[in-house]
Write a structure and sequence with these properties.
Strand order of the largest sheet: 1-2-3
Helix content: 40-55%
Distance between the termini: 26 Å
Order of helices and strands: EHEHHEHHHHEHEHHHHH
Bound molecules: adenosine-5'-triphosphate, L-tryptophanamide
Structural class: mainly alpha
Largest sheet: 3 strands, parallel
Shape: globular
């Protein structure tokens, strides 16, 4: 079905079992909202996942688990297209074309590659990890996406997407839509609860500052209550001087809809403990139904797989059309059937 709505596309990796709060607030929450106003394509990016070693059985389980969590978070297969990246072979096919358009130096400047390869020891990093942003470029261009809802850490990859789309269009003729990053100021970067200057990440050095949505709610409450704040006592939003408190306020405000100003007022004259205690309750209220909804999808793998099969079919129709156009522009001889 053709749609005159603007298109969004995004992806999430099935590399950890549980999504964390940064994934949800930075990206997935926007995906849910955008399916109401946009022609939305969302995928579990298993091709990206294998840029670091994966156990095959675990990868398969984590792919279903990621899809179950996306549905539990509120994605509705009647309102968006939800699929698994490897079910749509056009991603790898356009990825190759894009690889051939990217300068080695240009790819070397991707900061996420530098961070991720440094973590494993640069010698052990794969070529796949190096070219992963270029596969992401193909992911986005295949769907002619107008906007890409992601966290702040992905901004550079969206810039690369625009650069490569423009290069292709200039050299070979108008083919791809130039996408924009859709990153919310308030939640584009959620910080680690123990180190509020570092991004909350599944690969954090300690699990204490990482809120996994599928953790026992009691564990989550405990992590919130022991969040690192400063030695001052005033509940005030000030990222520079009070990163810990500011992070808690951003999370609280986004989950409840209360503004930061309202929250500052609510906690006037109260200590950090009151804020943390209430936020722990808010978090528990959020994760408890999320966990049970995720479990319900996992308990019915046939329904889950059929949602993903329908999603792949819809995605492929769009991706195949773009790939055919791109192949033609490149000058590949059409295959006769
Ligand atoms: P991690 O840093 O935990 O390894 P990632 O960025 O490698 O996460 P994904 O799981 O694919 O991998 O991320 C999915 C989405 O979540 C992306 O759009 C990413 O920008 C967003 N995201 C990840 N961490 C945060 C965070 N701390 N704050 C806001 N958004 C985040
Ligand atoms: N690289 C992203 C995941 C990702 C993605 C995409 C995001 C892969 N393909 C296309 C937006 C659009 C990450 O690691 N978070």
């Amino acid at each position: 079905m053709a749609s005159d709505r603007p298109r969004v596309l995004s992806g999430i990796q099935p590399t950890a079992g549980s999504f964390h709060l940064g994934n949800y607030l930075g990206a997935v929450r926007q995906w849910v909202a955008l399916q109401e106003t946009h022609d939305a394509f969302y995928m579990v990016v298993d091709l990206h996942a294998i840029t670091v070693p994966q156990d095959p059985a675990q990868l398969r389980a984590n792919t279903r688990l990621a899809a179950a969590q996306l549905l539990a978070a509120g994605l509705d297969p009647d309102r968006c297209t939800l699929f698994v990246q490897s079910h749509v072979p056009e991603h790898a096919q356009l990825g190759w074309v894009m690889n051939c358009l990217t300068g080695f130096g240009e790819a070397s400047r991707m900061t996420q590659f530098k961070d991720k390869s440094a973590k494993q020891g640069a010698e052990r990093a794969t070529v796949g990890l190096f070219t992963y942003p270029i596969l992401q470029v193909a992911d986005i261009l295949l769907y002619q996406a107008n906007q890409v809802p992601v966290g702040e850490d992905q901004r550079q990859h969206i810039e690369l997407t625009r650069d490569l789309a423009e290069r292709f269009n200039t050299r070979l003729g108008q083919t791809f839509t130039l996408p924009e990053a859709y990153i919310l100021k308030e939640t584009g970067k959620i910080y680690d609860l123990q180190d509020p200057t570092a991004k909350m990440s599944k690969s954090a050095s300690s699990p204490k500052g990482l809120i996994n949505l599928l953790d026992e709610p009691r564990t989550t409450a405990k992590k919130v209550k022991s969040a690192v704040t400063d030695t001052d006592t005033v509940v005030r939003y000030d990222v520079e001087n009070k990163p810990g408190v500011s992070n808690l306020l951003s999370i609280y405000s986004t989950l409840t809809g209360e503004t930061i100003a309202e929250l500052e007022k609510k906690y006037e004259g109260k200590l950090y403990g009151a804020l943390k205690g209430d936020l722990a309750d808010v978090m528990v209220e959020f994760v408890t139904p999320f966990r049970s909804r995720t479990q319900a999808y996992l308990d019915d793998p046939e329904t889950l797989d059929s949602i993903l099969a329908k999603g792949a079919e819809k995605a492929r129709a769009v991706a195949a059309e773009t790939l055919a156009l791109a192949y033609d522009r490149v000058g590949f001889l059409p295959a006769k059937h």
